[in-house]
């Protein structure tokens, strides 16, 4: 039997400024992402598309999802592979390329820059190599059609 997992979210538009969508500039792109028992995430469109820069946009959330999945699988592989990680921070970067007609675009790459701290210098080589195994198992990486690269930095925790 095939195992499946379902993920239910609600996207609630909060951007009616009183006249609905009677014109392209007459409404806000603000919305909230909701999930049962979860704190709402304030979201909007990219500021380039009339969004609120103080809110998360879908493109940022996609890049964040890629980075989160990579991190979670990396920590798992380290834990099962004998690499003791004491710190992890990623400065992920995504690029959206607009089509020539200007009406659409797509994410064309995500580059992850994980900065990992391990407890012993003997773990650095394996800690670096494990990043290369994640694309095969990360649910998000396996679901997207753009390249995901990683440029890890591995540090040893000072004693």
Task: Give a short overview.
This protein is an alpha/beta fold and 159 residues long. The protein contains 2 helices and 9 strands. InterPro entries: KH_dom-like_a/b, OsmC/Ohr_fam, OsmC/Ohrsf, OsmC_Ohr_Peroxiredoxin.
Please describe the structure with a list of short key phrases separated by commas or semicolons.
KH_dom-like_a/b, 159 residues, Organic hydroperoxide reductase OsmC/OhrA, alpha/beta, three-stranded mixed sheet, OsmC_Ohr_Peroxiredoxin
- The coarse overall form would be elongated
CATH architectural group of the largest domain: 2-Layer Sandwich
Number of domains: 2
What portion of residues belong to β-strands?
Answer: 25-35%
| Sheet with the most strands, sense and barrel status | 3 strands, antiparallel
Uncertain stretches: none
Instruction: Quickly give the structural class.
Output: alpha/beta
Terminal CA distance: 49 Å
What is the CATH homologous superfamily assignment of the largest domain? Answer: K homology (KH) domain
E-strand count? 9
| CATH third-tier fold name of the largest domain | GMP Synthetase, Chain A, domain 3
CATH class of the largest domain: Alpha Beta
What percent of the residues sit in helical stretches (DSSP H or I)?
A: 10-25%
In the sheet with the most strands, the strands line up as 1-2-3
Give the count of helical stretches.
Answer: 2
Determine the mean pLDDT: 89
Tell me the Rg in angstroms: 19 Å
Q: What is the H/E order?
A: EEEHEEEEHEE
